[in-house]
Amino acid sequence: MTEHYRITLLPGDGIGSEIIAVMVDVLKTIAPKFDLEFTFQEALIGGSAIDATGNPLPEETLNTCRESDAVLLAAIGGYKWDNLPRHQRPETGLLGLRSGLGLFANLRPATILPQLMDASTLKREVVEGVDIMVVRELTGGVYFGEPKGVFETETGQKRGVNTMAYTEGEIDRIAKVAFETAQKRNGQLCSVDKANVLEVSQLWRDRITALSSQYPDVQLSHLYVDNAAMQLVRAPKQFDTIVTSNLFGDILSDAAAMLTGSIGMLPSASLGASGPGVFEPVHGSAPDIAGQDKANPLAQVLSAAMMLRYALNQPAAAQAIEDAVQTVLNQGYRTGDIMSEGQQLVGCREMGDALLRALNSINN
Ligand SMILES: NC(=O)C1=CN([C@@H]2O[C@H](COP(=O)(O)OP(=O)(O)OC[C@H]3O[C@@H](n4cnc5c(N)ncnc54)[C@H](O)[C@@H]3O)[C@@H](O)[C@H]2O)C=CC1
Ligand SMILES: CC(C)CC(=O)C(=O)O
Ligand SMILES: [Mg+2]
What we know:
Elements: E1 3-12, H1 16-30, E2 36-42, H2 47-53, H3 59-66, E3 70-75, H4 90-100, E4 105-111, H5 124-127, E5 131-137, E6 145-152, E7 158-163, H6 168-184, E8 188-193, H7 199-211, E9 219-224, H8 225-234, E10 241-244, H9 246-257, E11 267-271, E12 278-281, H10 298-310, H11 315-330, E13 333-334, E14 344-345, H12 348-360
Parallel strand pairs: 1-2, 1-3, 3-12, 5-10, 8-9, 8-10, 13-14
Antiparallel strand pairs: 4-5, 4-11, 6-7, 11-12
Helix pairs in contact: 1-10, 1-12, 6-7, 8-9, 10-11, 11-12
The structure holds 1,4-dihydronicotinamide adenine dinucleotide, 2-OXO-4-methylpentanoic acid and magnesium ion.
Residues 91, 94-95, 250, 282 line the site of 2-OXO-4-methylpentanoic acid.
């Protein structure tokens, strides 16, 4: 029986429309082979939404997302909107989408593919075999805490304020996701915080430690975030699952991206307790290469694979996409960000065409 899914597409800004187009072709190609049918509905977010409606997250977009089975987002942001007031910025739209859909858990896998061992800026022996899952808290911490703003002091100076805050409930629910993720992997969980300085991090550490007694099969460790950043580039293979707050996870997952060769390779899944998840690359809108057919579409395509696996329970279709990515890399196709000697430099569109050829060679 054919399974039918309603998918919201959010191309956003910059390279968004280029990489989403490749991903949609991939999904359309895979659908009949696995008895799937997708209805795609495009909606506005970020700078393109500001230009069209004055609002980085129109209510209509949130409603469309809520009515769908899953959301595929590319990225938002760009120079054009950098000087708008905070509440009108593209990034505020993205934060609104995450909080509006209750997406408190962001899973960011950083796995090095054997074909890309020489694309990393780190030595082959350091990155070979890296397989890390960063579980980033996504709707709390300093990106959302109150008070925030720029205020005037008694002496007339401007003072910028953001607040890093977590409740026990917010920590407990992300901890549960992280422990369960570690259980399904190698059973090692490293919690990253700054408990030597920040009260909010001490609460984080205390709650994670308290909850660990419910997961005797998971080996829990703690690192301060400065050391964790250093360890990630010194000896990344020591990590299995990492759980951390919104800001630290944002930073550490970009660093982890470079272990795999490029941020253009890293997908992610943003999940809540119920309702549709958002599947999105870790990278941003890359305005420096937008409109030039230079973007690597693989993080976006692998985000669609995460959607098939995590939201739609279609692991065989997810695997087919992941296999196609390996095939095109085996064939030597490389966008600029993962290019190395002896390989064939291609643009975003050409990489997409190679993926479609690989998928079309799958037997029905
Ligand atoms: N989830 C999202 O929508 C995010 C949005 N942003 C926004 O994106 C804009 C640009 O931010 P940046 O700090 O420059 O981060 P970025 O991730 O967009 O780009 C960083 C560097 O990586 C390269 N890059 C990123 N994705 C790539 C891909 N698929 N293929 C090849 N190269 C790629 C870019 O060309 C750039 O040199 C900003 O407006 C920022 O706020 C940033 C991060 C996440
Ligand atoms: C653009 C920000 C809102 C977030 C970010 O950098 C990210 O989620 O990776
Ligand atoms: Mg980021």
